[in-house]
Amino acid sequence: MALAGIRVIELAGLVPAPLCGMILADFGAKVVRIDKTKNASFTDTLARGKHSVALNLKRPEGVEVLKQLCNQSDVLIEPFRKGVMERLGLGPEVLCGQNSRLIYARLTGFGQSGPFSKTAGHDINYISASGLLSKFGRKEEKPYAPLTVLADFAGGGVLCALGIILALYERMQSGKGQIIDANMVEGAAYCCSWLWKSQQLGLWDQQRGENLLDSGAPFYETYKTSDGKYMAVGAIEPHFYEQFLKGLGLDSAKLAPQMSQSDWPEMKRIFAEAFAAKSREQWCKIFDGTDACVTPVLSFEEALNHPHNQERGSFVTDENGQVPQTSPRPAPVLSRTPATVNLGRNPEVGEHTQLVLTEYGFTKEQINMLLSAEIIECRRSKSNL
Asked: 295 Cβ partners below 8 Å, 6+ apart?
């Protein structure tokens, strides 16, 4: 696999860092998650393919263990607010000073500098600080946050993984690691660079919810069908729009021009009335195979079973304990070195402590001493029976 041989230490945290670690693991890196001791309730749903070491970093002996692990690793992912790692004696000046090849990835909300750098936050706060939240919402409604996709996952986990891979590539030339300041405000903004750079194109000059792509246009919208389900319409280009109208059974000559914004509310009413006359299945039969840019709004279960996704194998099932978990397969698909997904269950906290420490050169006597001093925890995996 593409990242085979790369050793990654991931300090346990909320979802952005685990996603970053899972991406690296999916593409072949050996990822060790460092969990807190006495933390059996910790749940990481993005732990696929990782090993777990339970380590007490509040004790100097635990800090020394992590230093030794980082000395033999390629990447460290840390998800804490500015200053936390330094207070533990694990800042980049220490770890990179010991291992000049280490790539030290710092994944935070607001970054390593600026007045908000030590401030708590979540996805909604990061996209609000980036300016993006002001763009999400319907006309005459308050802004709404689109789940936690944009900051946590796209701007956070995915871009942090990209930064790590870039640093690994650069290290091939320089032989040196570096520090990555991956933060979700700038990451989310960067993912939406097109929104920033297209402001002079006339696409965003109206109020929120009145523009081409923010639910203002009747041909870029969702519509309810007779069975209470929905269809998604993205018929922007004129030739796609004509096929869309044809599918609805409407005559463009009897409608206002497509780009007449003052007529958009009435056109929405007409389209909504048309969609309400048939079921989603009926509309799928009409639009499937056309270039009208009309598709059904699928639930997770429906997406899993859709013929297109089935043929491509777009989803995989993990044996997560007694309850199988289905999730998207790794993307993108590489022709020679594709990801190979570990379909086993997620690791228990501390399940691989002894195994990992042994692989990193700790002796049996050292491991037993660390266990006795409660610096580490070793837990047996739970039976799936």
From this structure: 231, 232, 287
